[in-house]
Every structure is written in structure tokens, then in C-alpha cells.
Amino acid sequence: MATPQETTRILRRLLASGMQARAQRLLGRMRPADRGPVLSGLTPPEIRTVVDLLFQQHRAASTLTELPPELLPQIFDALGDQRLADILARLELDDLVELVEWLDEERREGVLARLPDRIHAELRKMETYPPESAGRAMITRFVALEKSMTAEQAIDRIRSVAADSESILYLYVVDDKRRLEGVVPIRQLVAGGPDRVMADLMIPDPISVRADADQEEVAQLVTRYNLLAVPVVDDENRILGVITVDDVIEVINEEATEDMYHLAGLSEEDRVFSPAHHAIRKRLPWMLLNLAATFLAAWVVGLFERTLDEIVALAFFMPVVAGMGGNGGIQALTVITRAIALGELEFSSGLRAVGKEVTVAIVVGAITGLVSGFLAYLWQGNAYLGLVLFGTMLATMAVAGILGAAVPLTLKALGQDPAVGSGVFVTTLTDIFGFAAFLGMGTILLDRLAA
Amino acid sequence: MATPQETTRILRRLLASGMQARAQRLLGRMRPADRGPVLSGLTPPEIRTVVDLLFQQHRAASTLTELPPELLPQIFDALGDQRLADILARLELDDLVELVEWLDEERREGVLARLPDRIHAELRKMETYPPESAGRAMITRFVALEKSMTAEQAIDRIRSVAADSESILYLYVVDDKRRLEGVVPIRQLVAGGPDRVMADLMIPDPISVRADADQEEVAQLVTRYNLLAVPVVDDENRILGVITVDDVIEVINEEATEDMYHLAGLSEEDRVFSPAHHAIRKRLPWMLLNLAATFLAAWVVGLFERTLDEIVALAFFMPVVAGMGGNGGIQALTVITRAIALGELEFSSGLRAVGKEVTVAIVVGAITGLVSGFLAYLWQGNAYLGLVLFGTMLATMAVAGILGAAVPLTLKALGQDPAVGSGVFVTTLTDIFGFAAFLGMGTILLDRLAA
């Protein structure tokens, strides 16, 4: 199979020599997801031409939804408002909502005004749900049936509505007020007999989510109960839409990226393919915050100028204190953040988790403290220095364990993202504590160390 | 809804007072995935009783597969070989393979010998595939049809085979040598008419994976092409089994956990619910390695003893150099590792990615270097100190960007896990470079700094 880069080169050559029909055939043979990378390698005029070709084949919409959203602005920039509106009008509502978010504020109203009224109204409705909620991720096409229908009648109904049957994995059984009563997996419909009624085939009391639920909650439900789709309901259990597993996988990947990024002080939009100036703008505020944090640590070290002046060897061990404390904190932080994301704390509890992390940190701190204390003694020939390093490591690792475990749990309890800023916060506090403990003990034992 | 902890308490009380029938009803009302956390909170004798109760209802197997695997040993310990074999015999092969891996070496053969011969043979076959490969994750129950079959005939076939239709989302069309020719989504079978033939309904040239492909590759295919299941084939394109999306979601979560853990120097099995002694044993080797790395940095600092003795203020800025370099390296590392995991490098390329990270690092290094150089000048009143800090930050951030981007890409190119050890390696090298640069420049400009 050709790499995306090779396909881009071929496509480019076809376009340059005016062989549009062949370019169209090449594009037609590709799967929607494979067109994304190719599109992202083109210049704006080329993008315009390719989108036109795809549009004629009703393939432009499905191609756009397959692009990483961070690449959308450059594609949008190459297209006029009317063309963009025509493409957007062909999308499922959840994809439309997502794409529109990446449109410049100034253009958004102009493009949306060109959408058919029906879609415009549905979009407005969807925008009433909170960002990253189930309501925004659902599609609004689904098959709702009455309890008394037979499998045969249900199959007929599906045939009549399902020009695009993409979303039909479950049928939803509702009462006369459209309240959700059960689900029938479509494979059940086939495997049962033609005369079985829905009341008989359905799984009663199905798992559903409220429209205002967080998308992370949806992802946890799908993962936990092995679902292919989750119905979205309002306060009165009336079905509003459906979230399918492919969208859930996107959410899972997004949330994992967010957590990893937040631990490193990165913003979600800072991706491998974002332009450098974009990455710089996103990273700079965090790095300046980190700089402030390191200067705070520097100031703490500065308080011990006289001690350092007396025993310069203390400075040698500062990397040991900071490196070990920082790593210990990040380990606890990673274990807890991941457990929160995967809903694993139900197998433990917040308090037990903190207790365990602290126990682990103290034992690991004691062992590495003994080793490093002994090494320091061998190197500098002063047993008190070894003792100071041992005490510092033990105390710093314990603090790292407490902070690493407690900070994300506290943020979570406060309704905040458990990972945002945790990394910088935990390592800074651990560093400051570690330096203060090490140099403080060094100051107290100054006479012994100078001996 | 009751929390798992509350349900555990109720269950415990029922068992203690001998109300087994009520305990059984309580368990029966729960979904398989909800029984896992409850089970994990019980004592060994309680586990034995609950598993017996579940087994009578044919629910023990489905409950075990819903537990985080790290909790399995304690459950296994509470069960005898025969009971365990009886439960395992009821599992899908992919789940069986996974569970058996968590069984103590000593017990494994004894338990496996008690499995029916057919399952034993299939299991042996499956173990010929590499760990974490598609062959190990597939289920071997699927529906294969001939091209000439009508939808009605296909539906009859499904009814005849599908006692448990869990895995039937697609039908696989094969030729007379069982080579995969196409797939028919089951919803297509329903939405088309009863007389349509498979050749007509099928999607030809479907996406498939070889049995020895890595499970991460399967996850990327499912994510990319929005599939519900992927057929697994041998070298000659003969269908061997199917991997379903629920297993793929597990793989996605596992791989994300692995990457996050590896960046922090953690082992995958060190989870929130693992006992403390287990976590200590897993973390200690990494922490000792990290200790060695920090001592290497300490030794480099020690080389500049005379410089530090002369200008003790240089020691104050060591946390700034290490903190900023380390964070810069981890940022580049995180962006690249995540891009590799999500297959996003096809939207860029390895070389372009390194180039971008270095550009970003240099610009961010220049800006934070200017700020920190100026702050250092204000604090210590020496312009040369500011200059040294500026130069160090610029160079260290550049090195951090290069290492953070190049290390995971190199590991990947060598066929290694891009995240294992990268974190410790990148931060150590960055720290050492940073200290050497800072104290080295300080040594060269010693006269100016002492002024």
C-alpha cells in the first residue's frame, strides 16, 4: 500500500496536469479515513480542488470527519462559506457540532446561516447541552419501536427508514410517551423468529445516559458493559439520541491524551501536526508558570547561602533530592490519575489509595535513602552527610507520595480535572520541601558536616 | 444505586447469616461488570461461596472476565483446581487465554489438564501466537457464508448456530478454501431484502489483520475505520477468528495506561488496587535506576566544586536549569509518544516532528531564558550571571527538545516500545547537559561572575 505521502505526490501530479477524472478515481478508491492524511498534505488551492471533486461524489463530508480536528482550520480556510455549508449539511449532527467548533468565530455565523433551517434549529438545540456532554456527542437518527411489534414488522420498519443504516445496532423500545423501555440488539432480531414480539426480545431497563452527562461517563459505561451504543435520554427518560461505540473510542483516546498532556503541562491542541507557532503559543504560559515554580525553589535554596558556602558538597546532592522526589511524586500522580480515568477507584477507595501510595513511598524512600546515604558517605567520607541525605530522601519521598496521590483526588472531589497542573504543582512542592529539608538538616548539623 | 462497598457489606451480612438464596438473588440482579468490584472486597472463604453461587447460575465465568486482571490471583487462590477448570471451560477462548496468564505457574498445568480436550487443544494452538497479538485476542466463533447465499438463507443459518449470538455483528463471506472475500454487516442483511445474495450485500476487500499482528495495530484499524469487529486471517487470507470492538477498547485503554506508566517509570501491573508490597517490588528497580542517574548528575556537578566554592550563587539556579530542561524534554516526549500510539505521524513524519519540536524548544528556551536571565541579574546584580543562565536555558531546552522527540522515534524504529525508560533517560541526559553547560560557562566566566 502506498504511504499517504506517496499518494499525496501522485494526486498532486494528477491535479497539476489537469487529469481531474483520474484524480477523482484515485480519491474514490480510497477509504474516507485514508483521505484525511492525503488532504492534510496539500496546498490551499489543491485542497479546494480536491474537496470539489470529493463533493461531487458525496464524499467530502465523510472525509472531513476523519481528519484530526486540529487540521480543520487550514482546510476550512481553503473553502468558501457556501461550499462549506453544503458539506456540513450532509453530516450527522454530532460531527457537525464538532466541526463547527473549529470554525473561526467570524466565519461561523455566515456559514451556519447558509445551512437548511431544520439543521440550523437542531444545531441550536444541541448547543444548549454542556461542552463534552452526551447531548453533543449523540446522533439523532435511531429506530424507536413499540413493544407489540413483531420481529418481521420491525425488519420492515428498518428497511423503510434505513437508507443509511450506519447507526442501527440496537432498536429502542419506547412507550407512548417515547420513554425508553428496552433495547433489542439487531442481531437478536435476526436470531429470534419472525413472530417474536419486541416485548419478548428486548433487554429491559437498559443502560442509558442523561443528555447533560459528561462524555467520560459515557466512555466508562461503554467500556464497562461492553456496549455498542448508548441511548441518550432527557430527565423523563425520553429517548433523544444515541451515542455509538466509534464515537466513544474517540472520546477514550481524547481523554487519555488529555490526561497524559496535562501531566506534562501541555494543552490538548498541541499535537504532532500542529504548526510550531501554535505549539509555542500553547506551551509558553505553562513553561513560564514552571519557571516561576523553579525560581521559588531557587529562592528557597538561596536562603541557605551560608550553609552552602560552608559545605559546597551539599550542592552536589541537590539533583539527587529533586530527581528522586519528583519521580516519586509523578509515579503516585500517574497511578491515581489513571485509576480515576478508568473508574478503577471502585476497586479501592480514595483514602485507601492515598494510604497505599504513602506506604509505598516511605518504603521506597527508606531503601533508596539508605543506598544514597551510603554512597554519599563513601564519596565524601562524612557519615553525617549520609545521614542527612537518608533523612531527606525518606521525608521527601513520603511528601511526594502524599501529594501525588492527594492532589488529583482533591481536584476530582472539587469537580476539577484531576490532571491539570498537577504535575507542575506536585514536583514544585516536592522540590521545595526536599531542598528545605536537605539544606535545613545540613544547617543544623553544620559543625558535624564541616568536620 | 448502591456503591460497590455498600453492596459488599450487604452481601457479606447475607452470607454470614446463611441466607444463601437471598445472596444469590442479589448477585443475579447485578450486571456482570458490577459483580467484579463486589467480589474483590470479599475474604477468600466468602469468594469461594460467592463463586459457587454464581457458578450454579452460569454467571461465574462472565464475572471473572469483568475483573481487572491484577485482582485475579486472589480470586484464583480461593478456588480449587476443578472448580476453576469448570469455570474456565465456559469462557470464550480469548478470555480464557487472558485469564490463564494470571494463574501461578505451579497450578497452571493442573488446571489446564482438567479442561475438556477440545478446549485444551484450541488453547495450545492460540499460545503459538505471539503475546499481545491479534491471534491471542480473537474469538473463534463467527459465521462464514458462501457468496451465493440469500439474505433469507443467511438469517436461517444464523438462527441455527446462534445460541450465543454475542459475536455476530458481521457475517464473513468466504470462498471454497475459506479465504475471506467480503463482509456483510448484519444490519445490512436486515435492511436489504430477503432475496439479496451475499455477493451483492457484501463489502468486498474488507479490512483484516494477520494473526501475528500486534494488538495495537488492530486498535488503530478499528479506531481509524470505525469498525465493530476485525476478521483475523492466516498467511493465505483464510479466516481464523474475529476481534470485536469491546476487546479493542480494552486494548486501547491498556496501551494508554502502558504509555503513561512507562513515561513515569512504572510497570503496568502496578495499579491502584495492587497491594503495597507488590507496588514496592515493581517500583524499586526503576527508582534505583533513577537514583543511579541522579548520582551521575551529582558527580557532574561535583566536577565543578571549585567554581561552586567560588560562586555559591550558581547553586541557587540549579533547580531552574533542571526543572525547565526536564519539563521541556517530557513535553516533547509526550507529544511524540502519543502521536506514535494514535498513528498520527502519518499526518506528519518523524523528521518533521523532530524539527518542529526543536524549533518550539529553541523559541520557548530563548523566551524563558531571557526572563530567567533577567530575573537572575535582578536578584544577584551580576549581568554575566544572567547571560550564563540565558545561554544555558537556550541550549538545554534545545537538547531537551531533540532528545524528547528523537528518543521515542528511535526506539520505535528499533522495534522497541517508544515509552519504556524514555522518561528517565531524557530527563537524566537533559539534567546532566544542563548542569555541565551552566557550571561550565560559569567556570569560563569565573572572573566576571566573581566581580
Report on this model:
Two copies of one chain form a homodimer. Chain A is α/β, with parallel strands linked by helices and 451 residues long. Chain A has helices at 4-16, 20-29, 32-40, 44-56, 60-64, 72-77, 81-88, 93-100, 105-113, 117-126, 134-137, 151-161, 186-191, 198-201, 215-225, 245-263, 276-302, 305-310, 313-316, 318-341, 350-380, 383-413, 422-444, 446-450; strands at 144-145, 170-174, 180-185, 203-204, 209-210, 229-233, 239-244. The termini of chain A are far apart. At the A-B interface, helix 3, helix 12, helix 13, helix 15 and helix 16 of A face helix 3, helix 12, helix 13, helix 15 and helix 16 of B.
Largest interface: A-B, 121 and 121 residues
CATH topology of the largest domain in chain A: Tetracycline Repressor, domain 2
Give the number of helices of chain A.
Answer: 24
The main β sheet of chain A shows up as: 4 strands, mixed
What would CATH call the architecture of the largest domain in chain A? Orthogonal Bundle
Question: At the fourth CATH level, what is the homologous superfamily of the largest domain in chain A?
Answer: SLC41 divalent cation transporters, integral membrane domain
What is the tally of beta strands of chain A?
A: 7
* Euclidean distance between termini CA atoms of chain A: 72 Å
Low-confidence stretches of chain A: none
Using only CA atoms, what is the Rg of chain A?
29 Å
| Strands side by side in the biggest sheet of chain A | 1-2-3-4
Question: Under the CATH scheme, which class of the largest domain in chain A?
Answer: Mainly Alpha
Helix content of chain A: 55-70%
User: Which class best fits the helix and strand makeup of chain A?
Assistant: alpha/beta
Give the oligomeric state.
homodimer
Task: Compute the average pLDDT of chain A.
Answer: 89
Number of domains of chain A: 3
Outline of chain A: globular
Q: Roughly what fraction of the amino acids of chain A lie in strands?
A: 5-15%
